[in-house]
Write a structure and sequence with these properties.
By secondary structure, the chain is α/β, with parallel strands linked by helices. The longest helix has 25 residues. It is globular and about 50 Å long. The chain binds NADP nicotinamide-adenine-dinucleotide phosphate.
């Protein structure tokens, strides 16, 4: 029986690349998305055309009932749960803190912090312990250690919370055989930059990275898959930078 992976925000970007890579490696894949149903259906179709099994589930990670439904449907459809990738996240437009509205900060923290906590809490409740070899991977960001001044310190701080959650939850679950790790991507070419009003951000700033280029969603996905695999069997509480030296 195939292993099952549930990804938050798997319809586009890093989540999408993770879904496709996991399906290609034999995982059954369930993923959530918030609004873009067409993109979600394309991911399912692509996986099914390659002979894999996938389920797209609409819902907002910041709404508890939506998160519970996503886990219920994953377990009902595939009959098991082995890995959870806590990926869904947003950025805002580039602003110094002094110009940020409370509505913007609220939305940022609801999605990136509360949403990640709810998704991770359900994973902690439902992943099989001991012999299962289950794992949780958070998608944090290099912003957690860079601070993102004048762009989005709210976003950077939300990822700092994810790093701390990774460390704490890894210690809570280690005795049950559940590994908890995070990847910290740097500048990755996805649509998230356009959603923050800077569609060329990854290309433009990619030149300032020590490796002199932005990364791809696939490069991040490969790290996530590795952390979910038995090859990372002694890895827990790790914050893995996938940032080209940035
Ligand atoms: P993206 O291309 O904008 O895709 C975001 C995905 O998350 C989409 O599937 C979106 O669904 C979903 N999503 C957004 N808000 C959601 C919500 N409230 N509930 C459920 N799903 C939601 O973003 P990305 O670049 O792949 O980013 C993925 C993760 O990597 C984020 O946590 C981000 O902070 C992190 N990251 C990205 C970069 C980068 O340079 N790209 C760097 C460091 C870290 P819809 O399609 O329905 O909107």
């Amino acid at each position: 029986m195939s292993q099952t992976m549930l990804i938050s925000g798997g319809s586009r970007g890093i989540g999408r690349a993770t879904a496709l890579l996991a399906a290609g490696a034999g995982w059954d894949v369930a993923f959530t998305y918030r609004a873009n149903r067409t993109a979600a259906e394309q991911v399912v179709a692509e996986i099914e055309s390659l002979g894999g099994r996938a389920q797209a589930i609409a819902g907002d990670v910041a709404i508890e009932a939506d998160v519970l439904r996503a886990f219920d449907r994953t377990q009902t459809t595939f009959g098991r749960l082995d890995a959870v990738v806590v990926n869904a996240g947003i950025v805002g437009s580039a602003l110094p803190l002094a110009k940020m509205s409370v509505e913007r900060m609220q939305q940022m923290f609801d999605t990136n912090i509360l949403g990640a906590f709810l998704f991770a809490r359900e994973a902690a409740r439902r992943l099989p312990g001991q012999e299962g070899g289950a794992s949780i991977v958070f998608v944090s960001s290099a912003a957690a250690r860079l601070g993102s001044p004048f762009e989005y310190v709210d976003y950077a701080a939300s990822k700092g919370a994810i790093d701390t959650l990774t460390i704490g939850l890894s210690k809570e679950l280690a005795g049950q055989g559940i590994r908890v790790n995070a990847v910290r991507p740097g500048l990755i070419e996805t649509e998230i930059h356009a959603s923050g009003g800077q569609p060329d951000r990854a290309q433009r700033l990619g030149q300032t990275v020590p490796m002199a280029r932005p990364g791809s969603a696939q490069e991040v996905a490969r790290s996530i898959l590795w952390l979910c695999s038995d090859d990372a069997s002694y890895c827990t509480g790790a914050l893995l930078d996938v940032a080209g030296g940035r």
